[in-house]
Amino acid sequence: MSYWVSLHNKNGDIVDVERFAEGGTQAIGGDTKADLNITYNYGKPIRDAMVVADFPYSERFDYFGVRALHGQRAGDTITTLEVGVTILGTEQDDDYWAATPGNAGYALNILLQWARQYPDCVWNVN
């Protein structure tokens, strides 16, 4: 099980980003569409980190986890994502599926980079 997190422009299209090969489902050779599969295993570390600090959407993250991004303008979530990345760090475990803070923070950092690149786009989380 996983979350599919994508970033859409005003026309509803998924925006293009620098090629990446991270996520629970990976395209051979990577992908250039802002569409990241994040395992549910990261849900608890992300929720725990997000409720530590007092910032916008913290209550939504406590209840919804990554789904708190759904429907939000990317630029409005930059601070939230920055806090999450700072708390969790980005040191990845050799096991992608491990529910470590670093694995979860690494995934959030990918989203943060996309939000900075396309602040006027909107998140979709399934």
Description:
The protein has 126 residues and is α+β, with helices and mostly antiparallel strands. It has one domain. Helix content is 34%, strand content 19%. The chain has 4 helices and 5 strands; from the N terminus they run E-E-E-E-H-H-H-H-E. It has a 3-stranded antiparallel sheet with strand order 4-1-5, with helices on one face. Strands 2-3 form a two-stranded antiparallel sheet. Helix 3 packs antiparallel against helix 4. The protein is globular. The model has no long low-confidence stretch (mean pLDDT 85).
Describe this structure in a few short sentences.
The protein is α+β, with helices and mostly antiparallel strands and 126 residues long. The chain is 34% helix and 19% strand. The protein has four helices and five strands; from the N terminus they run E-E-E-E-H-H-H-H-E.
Write the layout of secondary structure elements.
Elements: E1 2-8, E2 16-20, E3 31-33, E4 35-39, H1 43-50, H2 58-64, H3 78-88, H4 101-117, E5 122-125
Antiparallel strand pairs: 1-4, 1-5, 2-3
Which strand order do you get reading across the main beta sheet? Answer: 4-1-5
Order of helices and strands: EEEEHHHHE
Percent helix among the residues? 25-40%
Distance between the termini: 11 Å
* Low-pLDDT residue intervals, each spanning 5 or more residues: none
Quaternary assembly = single chain
Shape: globular
Biggest sheet overview: 3 strands, antiparallel
Number of strand elements:
5
Structure class: alpha+beta
| Total count of domains | 1
Number of helices: 4
